[in-house]
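Working notes for the structural subgroup meeting. M.R. asked for a predicted model of this chain before we commit to crystallization trials. I am recording the input and output together here so anyone reviewing the notebook later can reproduce the run.

Input as submitted:
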Amino acid sequence: MDVADVNVGQRQHRDEVGVRCQKLFQDFLDEFKEDGELKYLEPAQELQSEERSTIEISFEDVEKYNQNLATTIIEEYYRIYPYLCQAVSNYVKDRAGLKKEKECYISFTDVPTRHVVRELKTDKIGTLVRISGQVIRTHPVHPELVLGTFTCLDCQTVIKNVEQQFKYTNPTICRNPVCSNRRRFLLNVDKSTFVDFQKVRIQETQAELPRGCVPRSVEVILRAENVETVQAGDRYDFTGTLIVVPDVGALALPGARTQIASKHQHPDEAEGVRGLKALGVRDLHYRVAFLACSVQPTNPKFGGIEMPLGEITPEIMKQQMTEGEWKHMYEMSRDKNLYQNMINSLFPSIHGNDEVKKGILLMLFGGVSKTTVEGTSLRGDINCCIVGDPSTAKSQFLKQVSEFSPRAVYTSGKASSAAGLTAAVVKDEESSDFVIEAGALMLADNGVCCIDEFDKMDLRDQVAIHEAMEQQTISIAKAGVRATLNARTSILAAANPIGGRYDRAKSLQQNIQLSAPIMSRFDLFFILVDECNEVIDYAIARKIVDLHCNVEETVERIYTKQEVLQYISFARKFKPIINKEAGELLVRYYNRLRLRDSTSAGKSTWRITVRQLESMIRLSEAMARMDISDEVQPKHVREAYRLLNKSIIRVEQPDIQLGDEQDEEQVVHEEEVNDETPVPSQTTQKKKMVLSFEEYKAISNMIVVHMRRDDARREEEGKEGMRRSDVVEWYLNHIADQIETEEELVEKKDMFEKVLDRLMYHDQVIIPLTKVGLKGSEQEEGDNPFLVVHPNYVIDQ
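Returned structure, recorded in token form:
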């Protein structure tokens, strides 16, 4: 018999409460049944496996069996937890026939009350609580010594099961009554008990953070099967207890280290208290941590109901709804004006800008993420960028989205670095290991990241989010740490034009400080220009005044915020599939965009690539989700194309200045002819004609439609094609009722001829043809050629 098992002359302390709880808990495992069968028999049998050591217990079952036992577990959790684990070990031996000794652990789930990090005070120490938070830092897994077996170097007595108080702890004294050794012990590694140990840091979420407060964080200790179950950026519920642990980092300070070393060098010298600093070396260096027994990933859905992560089908969500909620959800899906009603309910205090609201709404619904056969992930999240003049409600859109969606992170581009947006590699204070700390994009995983002042970011910081915007991952290779982390987030960015005002005469890329790769990764661009319009200005002013007078009465919501959130959450569980008709329409619309981009008429800000096709697919899937449809239909594709086309058209077209190229060529020709005595050209004094792009496209489309119809008619009748003079005469007859004076006739004729010249020689939409050698001179043919529309030209819709 081991001396350690019988301590002669020492009184054994027996915790009556712990022993009583152990017996009651073992009775609970033996007797609790569900559907007539022992609920925890099968989980106990799984503990015979070498890989398993933890049994999951629902706390609701304990409350049903014995309320007093449940109350004692909550109030005295840390004290009686070893006895509960011993009850599980006994149950596994009795029921499952486990032969060898094995440490078993308990993981409690469904603990009723959930607390936030800010509520962890000293009254929670030792009690069973459930906290929620977002993981911002994870540490590597290490072995932890929990029960040490030591050998006395003086008498060779083996001392078993010395509990380690979160730091290496020797026995206080040898258990041999005739030996008084207090310092000279050797750890017996083979007979000691080690468990996997991981430390993570969690932080308050944005939704739980009081306004104006700094987020608080706490370190969580994970053991056994709970290690490597969390990832930075994800949200979890941790069940366990708040504990007090020694601050090993503070004990390792230079002053403390010197004093500890001196004590070991001169153990026999008497020592006295030399002030508060010496007194506090051991007594005051403590901090709180959270010892978790259970980790449950949670994804609080938009409706506010907590649901675990994983494959949740619409049928599962329907089962969790009440009959009234499901009825209201069905009525919303049947609303014929759902599109407009939802944007009015989302942004009731913002007047106008319906296209921007629709784009943000589709961003919240999102597309369907896919994985190819090769394992490549295809992005399903939609990225939007809002560019506009000051006071056009850009930041208001971002603020409302960040407050609306629980899983949203709001940040400013000027105050954010590349590491702050993606992830940082920092050095741990205690172990000196390099660990990964999550940035804004990781914290917004499966949510929305709102970045204001996006154009104010440094170029090197913008480059850091290239990968996150397209591949939705963040790759890090720093300080020996190589990892690929998830950043499955939609980005909603706001930017100001260069100089503060948007210049219509320049393209979008000339108006903002963004690189072409960044711009191509945005699915939608919206331009907000502060225009002087009497009707719009009056409506905006009326809206603002009403908001200041009666805030509640002015807000017109068809649906409440809670109803919209619940509907979006339900719709996001659908994964619509593109049917054959919709797929053909997508291809046709993409070809139309490419053909329009191939001509120079559009002056596109960036080239139309397959990324715009993928954007159209994502927008179509978001429209199908909004309609609670299992497949993408042609009507969804048409709306996606309209929104994408509206975005591209709005950002890429400056006003058209007519006559510049022809006048410059004429000036150069006159200077070459009269190079001896140059005569000032009257052409340079002509007033430039400026047309808005909308007017220019309206006239050009009208010309193309008329010419194609007339060519078809002339071909049937066997007549010659249209000449330039025929087109001019047709247009003047078409607008005859708008002309009152001869001056207006000359001005309209001059303007139309310049538009025709631009279509012929600049945009190459119309091809001039001449017949040399026939009737008439070559000069006459050149001034009045036959005109034919380019066969590949596609009219913009």
